[in-house]
# Entry
Amino acid sequence: MAVRLSLWVALWATVVALPIGIAVAFALARASFWGKSLVDSIVHLPLVLPPVVTGYLLLITFGRRGFVGSFLADHLGIVFSFRWTGAALACG
# Structure
């Protein structure tokens, strides 16, 4: 059961993150635009921050009381915290 859940989360994290990652990587490598260093910093931020801080920021943002999470839960019925969708979001 745990292996199947891990594979499921990894699959969805890859499916969601891959197109976004390729687009951002292409933009950072080929394009010149205002705020490029800011986008580059945001992309590299999860590599510098400890995983605990990243998880805490994800819970604050996508939790039921968070800015994005409350909007998604109230208007679309999407809840990320303590579900496999939240794990896929964190992996992505």
